Amino acid sequence: MAARQPNEPQAQPPQDTVRSLLAELWRDRLQPSRPGSGRETSAGRVIHAALFLTATLSAFVTIGIVLVLIFETVEFFREVPFLDFFGSTKWSALFAEKQFGVWALVWGTGMIALIGLVVAIPLGLMAAVFLSEYAPPRVRAIVKPILEILAGVPTVVFGYFALVSVSPVIRDIFGQDVGIYNALSAGIVVGLMIVPIIASLSEDAMRAVPRSLREGAYALGSTRMEVSLRVVLPAAFSGVVASIILAASRAVGETMAVTIAGGGNPQFGVNPLEAVQTMTAMIVQLSLGDTPTTSIEFKVLFAVAMTLFVLTLVMNIVAQWVSRRFREEYE
Amino acid sequence: MARNFFTMMKSTAPSATEPSTAERTVAPPPPSMKQDAAAGVGVHLDPTLEAVRHDFTEEVEMALELRDVSAFYGSFQAIDRITLPVPRNRVTALIGPSGCGKSTLLRCFNRMNDLIPGARITGRIDFGGRNLVDPNVDAVEVRRRIGMVFQKPNPFPKSIYENVAFGARINGYSGDMDRLVEDSLRRAALWDEVKDELDKSGLALSGGQQQRLCIGRAIAVQPEIILMDEPASALDPVATLKIEDLMRELAEDYTIVVVTHNMQQAGRVSDYTAFLLAGEERVGRLVEFGPTQDIFTNPLDQRTEDYITGRYG
Questions:
Q1: How far is A144 from chain B (nearest CA, A)?
Q2: Same structural domain, A168 and A207
Q3: Among A89, A103, B95, B152, which lies 20 to 30 A Cα-Cα from A226?
């Protein structure tokens, strides 16, 4: 042992007595775990396997879900022509004369997501600019976590909030013949829901902009507003756009609030004051009913879910691509 | 005029932190001082505070006049009562070892330290009849008239054209922008290299080109003074030489103050040199100021001589 000591990483200079003592104590424990020695390996293997399983479990679940989606979607398209699904804007899955024009649902989803983004982009970006460029550190330390808590509010609360608080205001403004369930109300609460995503991620991106860039802009006689909006925000462009796309993807996938507040009216109209139905809300509606598992209404669920899945997947990939493609490297 | 200014400064008593200008002129200088001043040689009043000043060999107007400028970061004092003139249309170098406060001093000239929480400046910096460290003076206006080039090139992630146009745009320039961009880039000795690729990102240029772009960007705002904080320290020798040539050319139209670690550089580019040094307590003070040639060939303070001969720093 003594002869090997110089090669041991634990061996410390002699004056460092505590550490060398610790090194002595640990050496015996560390050595057996090296490959080839017998102790700890059985327990180690169990732990290793358990850790591997937990790490891969979610991956397997995802793969399973995708496989089921694909399988059932293929089943659906055996009975309904592809063009009836993707080539039509009429949806009436629960009527006697069934129509499966998914664009009615995609439209409803898109409209609510769009309204949500119109609400959330200005609010989120202004919040991000404030937190990153204006707020003193102490204010930021308080405000940012509060903003992020907003992201943790159960979405059913937002749905209820839309019905009891937002819709009445909309009716006060646009007249009482506007329904309590409408796209605008649902869109606004979805917007509020995604503000924290945009604000928090954009703020991270803006804070990552090097200080030297801000100083360069200030040195040219810029005001704080000009530095924030004309230098820092554009320099953080990739992160900001990625945050918006992620927020949009979240809005598209949002379920509870739009099911409660959006109404259940799959339609292809431009009026945001009318009720719409999103893909997610339709899935809820069909799943809650007593739809037989062999029926076409049941199978269309999977086709819609597949559409939704592909849509949000593409958005997430685009977000990642944008954030990598447009990232500026500042050494 | 310049001579009067210096005679007056030499007579300053090194007591209060912020004595009024009136007090200074009224206070009678000690007899010995007068004699030395008449002899044309700077005097050392207090080795810890009073700097040696060489007489000026030329008549020159002052772009800036500092009086008892101190700067603090919170409770830490970075520079102590620096009194210094900055001659117009000349290159003035601030030299000294690391941590002597030369960058801090430079950043007082355009109120850049305002951006650091807890930083404050006392004293006076006369700039066109106004005290630019006065909190009532708009720092944004000061920075428009006093440009700055930084140690590391920091072009904006925008096109070359937009980098140059940025300052002019935010300051409401309404003339011919293409012309301004071309003129500024020509003056920054970069036009010929980039004229065909003005849409390219400023970040795509080499380090030396980036720094010249930053100089062009500063010129486009048409400042009176350009501050340079070790502008060549991140560049290779060839790029450094280009920046130095450029500084000489720019001095015809602008007042330039350059912080540099590089003594040869200070010798090559500057007309005047100020030597700063921080003592044990890390507070930077002015040791000696004068025409660069005098400082380098005939330093009056032993510490200046030690520094320029490379004995420390």
A1: 20
A2: yes
A3: B152
pLDDT (mean) for A108-118: 94
Query: Are A317 and A188 within one domain?
Result: yes
B205 Cβ under 8 Å from any chain A Cβ: no
- CA angle at A274 for the pair A269 and A276, rounded to the nearest 5°: 70
Give the tens place of pLDDT for each residue, B143-195: 999 999 999 999 999 999 999 999 999 988 888 999 999 999 998 989 999 99
Pairing of strands B225-229, B52-53: unpaired
Q: What is the CATH number of domain B53-155+223-308?
A: 3.40.50.300
- The string of pLDDT tens digits covering residues A53-94 is 999 999 999 999 999 999 999 999 998 888 888 888 888 877
Which residues in A lie closer than 8 A to residue B141 (C-beta atoms)? 221
Query: Which amino acid is residue A38, in one-letter code?
Result: G
Q: Which of A257, A241, A243, A242 is nearest to A112 (CA)?
A: A257
The reply to whether A287 and A194 lie within a common domain is: yes
Same domain for A227 and A107? Answer: yes
- pLDDT the model gives residue B20: 39
Among the partner residues B140, B203, B221, nearest to A328 by beta-carbon distance: B203
The candidate with the shortest Cα–Cα distance to B287, out of A170, B278, B131, B191, is B278
Q: Are residues A256 and A215 in the same domain?
A: yes
Q: Residue B216: closest CA among chain A residues belongs to which residue?
A: A220
CA atoms of B239 and B213, how far apart (whole Å): 12
Instruction: Return the domain boundaries, chain B.
Output: 53-155+223-308
Residue A130 has pLDDT above 90, yes or no: yes
Q: Say if the Cβ atoms of A221 and B158 lie within 8 Å.
A: no
Per-residue confidence (pLDDT) for residue A16, from 0 to 100: 60
Rounded to two decimals, the pTM is 0.77
Average pLDDT over residues A38-47: 78
Least confident of A167-176, A183-192, A287-296, A315-324: A287-296
Tell me, what DSSP letter sits at residue B42?
-
Burial A117-131 (b: 16+ CB within 10 A, else e): bebbbebbbebbbbb
* Close Cβ partners of A246 (under 8 Å, ≥ 6 residues apart): A197, A201, A315, A316, A319
The set of residues, in sequence order, having a beta carbon less than 8 Å from that of B172 and lying 6+ positions away, is: none
Q: Are B300 and B307 in contact (CB under 8 A)?
A: no
Q: Nearest C-alpha of chain B: how many angstroms from A146?
A: 25
Q: Residue A9: inside a domain, yes or no? A: no
A213 and A284 within one domain: yes
The minimal CB distance from B140 to the residues A136, A215, A223 is found for A223
Quick check: is A26 in a domain? no
Q: Is A79 on the interface with B (CB under 8 A)?
A: no
Domain assignment present for residue A167? The answer is: yes
Q: Which residue of A has its CA nearest to B214?
A: A216
Q: Answer whether B115 sits within 8 Å of A218, measured CB to CB.
A: yes
Let me know if residue A1 belongs to a domain: no
pLDDT of residue B26: 36
Q: Are residues A197 and A245 in the same domain?
A: yes
Rounded CA separation B21/B28 (Å): 13
CATH number at residue A113: 1.10.3720.10
Name the minimum distance, in Å, from the CA of B41 to any CA of chain A.
Answer: 38
Q: Does B167 touch chain A (CB under 8 A)?
A: yes
Domain span at A215:
91-325
Same domain, A118 and A215: yes
Q: Which of A79, A108, A141 is the last residue of a domain?
A: A79
What parts of chain B have a pLDDT lower than 70?
A: 1-49, 312-313
